[in-house]
Amino acid sequence: MTRRFKSYSIAEFQAFINTLSIRRKITHLQIHHTWKPRKTDYRGEATIASMWQYHTNTRGWRDIGQHFTVSPDGLIWDGRSLELDPAGISGHNKGGIMFEMIGNFDQGEETLEGKQLDAIIAAVRVLLQKFNLTEKDIVFHREYSPKSCPGTGITKQWFLNEVQSRKIQELSDQSYVNAPQWKKSAIDWLYKERLISSEDWKKQIESSLPLWAEALVLRRIFEKIKLGRTPF
Ligand SMILES: [Zn+2]
């Protein structure tokens, strides 16, 4: 007997997450590589099902360990129920959402690149936004364990730079590109402090912040202060 798995494109994943409501409190995102299977072993759903077999039959877990698996073709596969903590990092699973990236990303082995890199970064960004998390809430397995996971070929700084730089790309419409440096750095700061979002940007913040945007930012500052979270 096997279990079926569903795959999402980046756009489908975003739509799915946007409509999702889960009761568990999410505090961090875990990043892992599978090590084995390697990228070259990937055979679509059968590869996810074989991990499920291994986790449930051999290891005796209640389900596959990870919530999502990102495959070399850039698909995001579903997995363990999001209402359950993952089986990812011994002693550090509470509140986690766990990603496995198919591949062996140790130095000299395989490379995280192309569609797979696009998919993991996009998925991470969608979840950070959804659960009001920051880059500080991204956890590599090896930070809590003597393993190399998600691979010695991936540095944390490089990964965080990808998350950050793609955020800037979202802002890269003409009005941002053409804005003087002082406006860009003000916009970047507002974005970093989560006082504006890419959604706001899509609603046309244009080359300067119009009155409605200033009002929105002020309201969010007051809301943050009310909640005891000073934005400064
Ligand atoms: Zn791991």
From TrEMBL:
Q: Please give the family membership noted in the entry.
A: Belongs to the N-acetylmuramoyl-L-alanine amidase 2 family.
- Write down what this protein is called: Autolysin
Using the record's annotation, list all stretches that form the Peptidoglycan recognition protein family domain.
11-145
> Which SUPFAM superfamilies does the entry mention?
N-acetylmuramoyl-L-alanine amidase-like
User: What's a Pfam family in this record?
Assistant: Amidase_2
Offer one example of a GO biological process linked to this entry.
peptidoglycan catabolic process
Q: Which GO terms describe its molecular function?
A: N-acetylmuramoyl-L-alanine amidase activity; zinc ion binding
- Where along the sequence do coiled-coil regions lie? none
